[in-house]
Design a protein that fits this description.
Elements (H helix, E strand, L loop, with lengths): L3 E7 L4 E4 L11 H11 L4 E5 H7 L13 H12 L1 E5 L11 E4 L4 H10 L4 E4 L1 H9 L5 E6 L7 E3 L9 E8 L5 E7 L4
Amino acid sequence: MAKLIYSMVTSLDGYAEASEGGLGTGADDPEVHTFINDLFRPVGTYLYGRRMYETMVYWETAHTEPDQPPHILQYARDWQAAEKIVYSTTLESVAGAKTRIERTFDPEAVRTLKAEADQDLTVDGPNLAAQAIAAGLVDEFHLFVTTSVVGGGKRFFPENVRLDLELVEQRAFGSGLIYARYRTHSGG
């Protein structure tokens, strides 16, 4: 059975999206990006909400821009090779042959997808992840914590959720960004 992974950059005070501005520095560091490339290369399917998909669709054509560094080209190749499912009631079309739209997030369909998948899946974006967390579908949480406190926005973890997690990996980068990987006690 494949794992479902929720991973995002988050501020030191736990926000995956800031009310105003960015989440701080560190995630754009080539060392961090190369680590992320290696970490997510084995992912076979990305689950996105509309807004996160609209951010990530950049990778469909990133390789065509001139003077891209090797770590950017590698991520674009890896992203293009994976399947993408976009959950949206308003999106009319998607880019790329490996992308499809689903109108609603169906926890049982995702559970079946996990059971049948040979490669891990990710759920990206705090809104969609909140639905997956509430359904007990997320097996691992990968946090990339910046050095900034942003004071508000959309939290990495949804409100009113209790999780007891096990820290299984951590790493600090020269930029100050900290990576922490947690597993649910029932997860793989």
